[in-house]
Amino acid sequence: MTQTRPRIARLKAAMAAEGIDALICFKPEHTFYLSGFNPIIYSHPVIVILPLEGDPVLMVHALRDDHGRSESWVTDIRLYGAWSTKVTMGPNWQEALASVLDEKGVRQGTIGLEEDAMPLARYRVMQGILPGARLVDSSEIFDRCRLIKDPDEIANARIAATLADHGMDAAVEAVAQGCNEREISTLSMAAMNRYWTEHLPDVEVADFGTLEGGAQNGLWTWTLAGDRMFRNCDNSSLRQPKRGETVAIFIWAVANGIHAENERTVAYGPIPAANRRALDTILKIREDIAPLMRPGTPLAELFNVTKRGLEAAGYAANIPGRIGHTIGIGAHEHTSLDAKSTVVLQPGMMFTLEPNLRVPAENVATQISDTILITDTGHEFLTRSRGGYLEV
Question: Which residue intervals define the domain Peptidase M24 in the entry (predicted)?
């Protein structure tokens, strides 16, 4: 019998409330969420069926059999397709899926599908497989359940944060040595990979792939200097930071499928007064937010504190649309820290804290982010590399 995780119970409670008999999952993040298996490349669909009654079923192509059985905590694994001497349920996933749904007695029931991630062509295939079922969108159910992290997810987030911290230390040192954007980034990623190699023998750092490719290594750093900070996300270039500029370092790290984010703005020598004032304003706002990061606080209040702080400092025209996002299986999960959020903080939630400024007219940009865990009594910074005003 499958040793399930608390998230399975949360999902089943949500399914019962919505009258859903089974969830069928194709989205890589969700099949991993329900099984612990990441094949890295999804050239053949990985499918998880979660019936309201009973354990999850993991369905993989026969060529993924050995990999799936070695990593998944789901014990009911079914095969489709043809591969060597593997015995399968049939030549394709469509027939195999129909057989499992018949076996579970849910093929004529209410079936939840991830409509926010499912291509229209596949949705039409599902309509053909399930002509007598009522198909409903399960996307919001997953978003709600993923807000609370299970103990295994929190443990892996701590590892990812440690990796990100090592990467950030190396990146800041590389700025001090006068390296260009690409050198800063590669030295940072090398530091993370070295720590992974030397200290984490049982941790995987693969990220989630697609039908056409995979991400063997999800320890990523990119660096943007000077006016390139306004690009927010771009490949690092050969541009060398100039004295008096700020340099933004962005790091995503992953450990066993769970992400952490660490971002810092580094001053390369003394910077203009406008840039320093912006950084000091953001650092003060982060201090003001910190006491509110505890169970019971509405996420929107964290944004409102930022808004009031920026307005008071004269940045009313530069208020960002959000000041962070939830994080976990996704480096950017769907819930934003913005004025519209109705989410109230609970123990086990994780998010990034990143109130920031972009003032193009003054060539001013800041980028500081940490990964935060809400605890029973308050919060914990999972990323712990040096913060505050950084000048090298």
Answer: 157-376
